[in-house]
Amino acid sequence: MTVSTSEKLPLAWNVIIYMATIHLVALFAFLPSNFSWGAVGLFFVLYWLTACIGITLGFHRLVSHRSFETPKWLEYLLVLCGSLACQGGPIQWVGLHRVHHKFSDHDGDPHDSNKGFWWSHMGWMFVQNPANQLVPKYTKDIQNDRFYQFCDKYFIPIQVALGLLLFWWGGWSFVVWGIFLRLVVVFHVTWFVNSATHKFGYVSHDSNDHSRNCWWVAVLTFGEGWHNNHHAYQYSARHGLQWWEVDLTWITIKTLSLFGLAKNIKLAPTTVPTK
């Protein structure tokens, strides 16, 4: 079943208010009173933990595509880190991502790049997107898991708990940098994979969509910018297929495998055809 997104859709005011609030509070990071090198260091640590370990490694390559396997305790830890990105719960995130791959740049894709950069970057979230209706169909493997259900329902309270911990540790500067500014940066870095890598870069493989390999998105997202490679070989744990396509998340997976924590790793063919 394909859900059309061609008609004018009602606004999702809860999402608009949620995003506007986080972005506005993040501006307080630019007040001199909220600056400290400790807060900056915390920002980068939590950026890596949520963007690389949580979203890229956990939500995307492990859960969405099952490109490798881990012990269940590690899977849950990665899912928790992904929930700290506050991009919705894991069930919703994974479901929408799988819908995207099913209909990439065609009718039914929740962030179809044919509708413009703004839509594919963030506009698609500000409406009651029909793709949300397909999430249960594409998440049958995780929707009954109680840990996934917990993270899906309570990802905001989990973030609040982290914020209280950071306030106790370092005051408001830690909260502003470690929660709000970090969330905004991780939001847009993740969204660049939906928008920029369907507009900028080079094409190596036929993938029946507009996906491209964009080096600067790969830098920001720890390897997700090699998006045309990914769409051509969705199951592959490695996205950077050429020697110059640095993929830090793939290096992370290889490191986990050395300790027996990543197994049954799926890869693109050794010799991959290029255009």
Automatic annotation (TrEMBL):
- Give the UniProt record's GO annotations in the biological process aspect: fatty acid biosynthetic process
InterPro entries on file: Acyl-CoA_DS, FA_desaturase_dom
| Major localisation | membrane
- Which EC number applies? 1.14.19.-
Q: Name one GO molecular function term.
A: oxidoreductase activity, acting on paired donors, with oxidation of a pair of donors resulting in the reduction of molecular oxygen to two molecules of water
Q: Which residues cross the membrane?
A: 12-31, 37-59, 150-169
Q: Where in the cell is it found?
A: Membrane
Q: Return the broad EC class.
A: oxidoreductase
Q: Which residues form the Fatty acid desaturase domain?
A: 37-246
Q: Name one GO cellular component term.
A: membrane
Q: Which PANTHER family match?
A: ACYL-COA DESATURASE, DESATURASE 1, ISOFORM A-RELATED
Q: Which family does it belong to?
A: Belongs to the fatty acid desaturase type 2 family.
Q: What is this protein identified as? A: Delta-9 acyl-phospholipid desaturase
Q: From which source organism is this entry?
A: Cyanobacterium stanieri (strain ATCC 29140 / PCC 7202)
